[in-house]
């Protein structure tokens, strides 16, 4: 990591380290030094200085990704630090920028871009308290509503109402913050801070509320739409969504599990699927698609062939694809463009080995991320896998948890993986020889942790030694038993758990009621 600091940056750190002095001296600071002071303040977690810098921001734009990213004065990227102290100071400073008594004509700020903030698993900020995407959505919405109330009640400078700042943000809405976000979006035209939703994620929300709030976000600006957990969107609802709302700039679409189920398709459903494919074809910017845990056997071509832009990311994990689906993917115009591919949950060696390797060969020049979890890749398949991966010289991430491979096969594979120059992250399975001899794959959740932990640790140490001896300390190798880190799930897991318990309770009550009626 490039952590060298220029003399300018060291001076900025010295300046902001005395918060009281820095805040008093801001009036004397030239405008082009504000970005430098902001990054220095963020690094040192000087919340009060951050607040005052934003409150008095003299420039036309405020882009968090650029301000915290690598700069000439300090190469370290701080955009993955979702420090609660810093981000709260930032957003309250933005509110106070509007209320600041300086002349509105002196206020030049027009665009605030919060989309460059990255939520990651390990935080380096000293306070250790993070503000994730959900909390940022909550706080910005709260500040917008409070700002409107204050402006209506107080005697403000008339020029304050002429302030208009677009705040670009990735919204994350659940049942718990729905009302607040909805009110902020409803009153958007009256508020000086105008929420501009660039990406939208929805979990734990009724369909009625989802349809209502998605229209309030101004879908014409939306670039990423994620409908993930506990939003019961099925194919007929998706058709209604695409027929009633246009997404001209949409680049990335994630649909919830079981959106499609071809096992119970009628002729009407087939036509519905065709219509959905055609609507997706009208989204000329669409390059990322996640359809995991839908049953799409034999229908991939119908869904994807209308697309006019090649996909760069495709997640069809656990979608029960057959040979025709894999053959379409390998021969489609998408194949040469896949940068990220997830084919987990398919028995690749048994069902379509040659077609898969053709697909891998086509995408090898651009492929950065490959996920093959629970694909029944065994020791006898490792040499062929290595042959397929040899050409994937840009691969940065390889995940293959849940495959029945021995510790010996893993060592052989790791020796090869050291040769991939761009590789940064590997997620590997617990070796088969660490489990009881009668274990069956795919392993159910109840048996997942029933392995010899001491033996696993010994194997993991050997694998890391292989990386170390090849001078590949830059590669992180791990075994996330229950799936990769998901910042959104981590942040809202209490709400998600409560929702699942409530759903389970309702199901039991319905069952008991039906049983009583039968009795």
Tags for this entry?
519 residues; alpha/beta; 13-stranded parallel β-sheet; 13 strands; 42% helix
How would you describe what is shown here?
InterPro entries: LRR_dom_sf (IPR032675), LRRC14/PRAME (IPR050694). One of its GO terms (cellular component) is cytoplasm. It comes from Grallaria varia (variegated antpitta). Belongs to the PRAME family. LRRC14 subfamily. Keywords: Leucine-rich repeat, Repeat. With 519 residues, the protein is of the alpha/beta class. It has a domain at 7-131. The chain is 42% helix and 10% strand. The protein contains 20 helices and 13 strands. It has helices at residues 7-17, 19-25, 34-43, 47-55, 64-68, 84-99, 133-153, 178-186, 207-216, 235-244, 267-281, 300-304, 323-331, 348-351, 353-363, 382-389, 407-417, 453-469, 487-491, 493-518, and strands spanning 61-63, 111-113, 165-173, 193-202, 224-227, 252-254, 288-290, 313-315, 340-342, 369-371, 397-399, 425-427, 476-478. It has a 13-stranded parallel beta sheet. Strand 10, helix 16 (382-389) and strand 11 form a beta-alpha-beta unit. The mean pLDDT is 93.
């Amino acid at each position: 990591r490039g952590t060298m600091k220029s003399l300018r940056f060291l001076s900025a750190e010295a300046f902001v380290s005395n918060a009281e002095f820095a805040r008093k001296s801001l009036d004397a600071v030239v405008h082009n030094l504000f970005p430098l002071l902001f990054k220095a303040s963020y690094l040192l977690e000087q919340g009060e200085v951050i607040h005052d810098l934003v409150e008095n921001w003299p420039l036309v734009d405020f882009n968090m990704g650029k301000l915290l990213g690598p700069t000439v004065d300090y190469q370290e990227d701080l955009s993955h630090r979702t420090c609660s102290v810093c981000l709260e100071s930032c957003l309250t400073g933005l509110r106070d920028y509007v209320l600041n008594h300086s002349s509105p004509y002196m206020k030049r700020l027009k665009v605030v871009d919060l989309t460059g903030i990255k939520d990651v698993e390990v935080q380096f900020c000293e306070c250790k308290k993070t503000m994730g995407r959900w909390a940022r959505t909550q706080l910005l919405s709260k500040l917008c509503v409070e700002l409107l109330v204050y402006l209506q009640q107080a005697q403000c400078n008339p020029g304050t109402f002429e302030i208009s700042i677009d705040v670009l943000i990735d919204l994350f809405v659940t049942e718990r913050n729905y009302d607040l976000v909805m009110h902020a979006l409803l009153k958007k035209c009256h508020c000086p801070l105008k929420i501009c939703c660039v990406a939208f994620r929805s979990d734990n929300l009724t369909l009625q509320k989802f349809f209502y709030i998605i229209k309030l976000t101004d879908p014409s600006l939306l670039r990423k739409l994620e409908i993930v957990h506990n939003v019961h969107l099925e194919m007929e609802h998706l058709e209604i969504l695409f027929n009633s709302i246009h997404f001209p700039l949409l680049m990335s679409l994630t649909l919830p599990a079981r959106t499609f189920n071809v096992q119970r398709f009628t002729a009407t459903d087939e036509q519905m699927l065709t219509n959905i494919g055609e609507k997706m074809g009208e989204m000329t910017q669409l390059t990322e698609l996640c359809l995991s845990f839908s049953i799409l056997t034999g229908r991939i071509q119908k869904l994807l062939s209308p697309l006019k832009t090649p996909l760069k990311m495709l997640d069809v994990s656990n979608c029960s694809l057959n040979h025709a689906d894999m053959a379409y993917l390998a021969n489609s115009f998408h194949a040469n463009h896949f940068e990220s591919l997830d084919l987990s949950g398919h028995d690749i060696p048994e069902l379509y080995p040659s077609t898969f390797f053709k697909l891998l060969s086509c995408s090898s020049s651009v492929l950065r991320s490959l996920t093959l979890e629970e694909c029944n890749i065994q020791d006898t398949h490792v040499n062929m896998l290595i042959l397929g991966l040899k050409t994937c010289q840009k691969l940065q991430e390889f995940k293959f948890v849940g495959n029945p491979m021995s510790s010996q096969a893993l060592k052989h594979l790791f020796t090869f993986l050291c040769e991939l120059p761009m590789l940064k992250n590997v997620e590997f399975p617990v070796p088969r020889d660490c489990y009881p001899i009668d274990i069956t794959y795919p392993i159910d959740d109840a048996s997942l942790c029933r392995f010899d932990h001491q033996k696993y640790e010994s194997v993991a140490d050997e694998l890391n030694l292989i990386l170390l001896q090849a001078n590949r300390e830059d590669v992180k190798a791990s075994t996330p038993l229950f799936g990769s880190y998901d910042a959104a799930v981590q942040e809202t897991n209490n709400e998600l758990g409560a929702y699942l318990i409530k759903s389970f309770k309702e199901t039991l009550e319905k069952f008991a009621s039906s049983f009583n009626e039968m009795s």
